[in-house]
Amino acid sequence: QVQLVESGGGLVQAGASLSLSCVASGLTVGDYTMAWFRQAPGKEREFVACIVKTSVRTLIASSVKGRFTISRDNAENTVYLRMSELMAGGTAVYSCVASISGSSTFASSYIHWGRGTQVAVSS
């Protein structure tokens, strides 16, 4: 059974940095395209970043490019999202997801989803 368990969320001030972790079980993160999506209250789910299976290629949403990075530790079977310069009002639930396909910004491409971790950014 596949499980993706996110951690690292919390309340931070605008301008701060935060790192999220996603520990996977039941799958090998290097064999999947792993991504992060986020959903703010009252808004649609939004692609944040992905790291392509069997490579180090990444795709970062333009809204966070230059501030967020995604990485993968195959030995720990963990995916990370490092966020910097967090913006006020950037509160959302961040979810870790996995796809057997290549890079995609579409939620429908991802077959495994974690429950998410909440990030709240105060001004």
Give your account of this protein's structure.
This protein is mostly beta strands and 123 residues long. Strands 2, 4, 5, 6, 9, 10 and 11 form a seven-stranded mixed β-sheet that branches. The chain has a four-stranded antiparallel β-sheet with strand order 1-3-8-7, with no helix packed on it. The protein is globular.
In brief, what are we looking at here?
Helices cover 0% and strands 50% of the residues.
- Number of separate helices: 0
- Which oligomerization state do the chains in this entry correspond to? single chain
Total strands: 11
SSE string, helix = H, strand = E? Answer: EEEEEEEEEEE
**Which range best describes the helical content: under 10%, 10-25%, 25-40%, 40-55%, 55-70% or over 70%?**
under 10%
Radius of gyration: 13 Å
N-end to C-end Cα span: 40 Å
Query: Which word captures the global form?
Result: globular
Sheet of most strands: 7 strands, mixed
Q: What percent of residues are in strands?
A: over 45%
Report the average pLDDT across residues. 96
Overall structural class, as computed from helix and strand content, comes to mainly beta
| Low-confidence residue ranges | none
Q: What labels describe this entry?
A:
50% strand; 7-stranded mixed sheet; 123 residues; 4-stranded antiparallel sheet
